[in-house]
């Protein structure tokens, strides 16, 4: 924990000349389009797999390839970003995702379709890391949480819009139309990304020798304390967030609610999720990271713990809205904490490890929920996820450093 002297250090002065609105299109436009592109194809992937002859279990595995692609490519993504810079990494991610979608669209072979889905997941890792790294440097530190919360929120808006655009296109033109929308979206993101200016590292102070080029090994060694403390909190947060996507529909099915009702409840929770990201980012900038990070997990944990006690539409809706609100105020939280602790030299490698921890949690959370639901009951699985959220709240409350709680910590 930080010392009292460190805790009392004032936050850096606010740059009154900076405005997020002035950089809205180059900063957030690619995220909106990338989200629309991916959101358009994700609901269609299992249907296409089934059309190509996959069994139900095989279709589920192909859907999982998107997440697997992101998981395995986090470290290579950091190397790409460090080698070519954030701008060209963003362009490469959009083009690679477009190629993966094109392969999925035009192949009639199931294994090639799976390869296309894996490519889409790989592009996620590169794009997300490059955007986070770019925004961490492009935005003054006193606006960091608002910028990264908005970045995460805009991506969620894109993922929300994409399926609706795909549904309309599929209704008129068939399943292939969803992939066309996806390709247009991610290539549009690459086109806007190509126009953003490159960022240069600030010059070294007079008399300071250049630092040796950082590597993944050196970043792991020098920042192992952060990875083994706050990084554990990131794993727990990601596990809870990923599990929430399955919790609501599964419990709605357990209550024998109509599919349309379950979809409506899920959609309303997602709507709440998208409405609160900017106010939450503003609170993080002005009050501190823990003022949002800890309540986010507390609200989600208590709502999930209460969900097994819901008995109908109204009570499930209330619990789901609480989950959506808790998740929404945490938009950009992981990215902000990562940016706060990333060193100025070797930022890409640090964020690559940070995103790897996040993806490990995102993969492990639903797997644990599935195991507990099979071994015990669904109610116990949901309750355990709630306990994980409370554990994440405690971890974040303890390890978020007070001297960096308002963004005052400047990476070395």
In short:
With 412 residues, this protein is mainly alpha-helical. It has helices at residues 4-7, 24-41, 45-51, 56-72, 74-84, 86-106, 110-138, 144-173, 176-193, 216-222, 224-228, 230-254, 259-275, 277-286, 290-306, 313-329, 333-341, 347-375, 378-399.
Question: What are its keywords?
Answer:
mainly alpha, Growth Hormone, Chain: A, 2 domains, globular
What does it look like?
With 412 residues, the chain is mostly helical. The protein has 2 domains: 27-193, MFS general substrate transporter like domains (Growth Hormone, Chain: A, Up-down Bundle); 216-404, Growth Hormone, Chain: A, CATH 1.20.1250. Helices cover 76% and strands 0% of the residues. The protein has 19 helices and no strands. It has helices at residues 4-7, 24-41, 45-51, 56-72, 74-84, 86-106, 110-138, 144-173, 176-193, 216-222, 224-228, 230-254, 259-275, 277-286, 290-306, 313-329, 333-341, 347-375, 378-399. The two termini are 19 Å apart.
The structural class is mainly alpha
What would you report as the Rg, rounded to the nearest angstrom?
21 Å
User: Helical region count?
Assistant: 19
Per CATH, the architecture of the largest domain is: Up-down Bundle
Number of domains: 2
CATH T-level fold name of the largest domain: Growth Hormone, Chain: A
* Outline type: globular
What level of helicity do the residues show?
over 70%
Largest sheet: none
Task: Indicate the CATH class of the largest domain.
Answer: Mainly Alpha
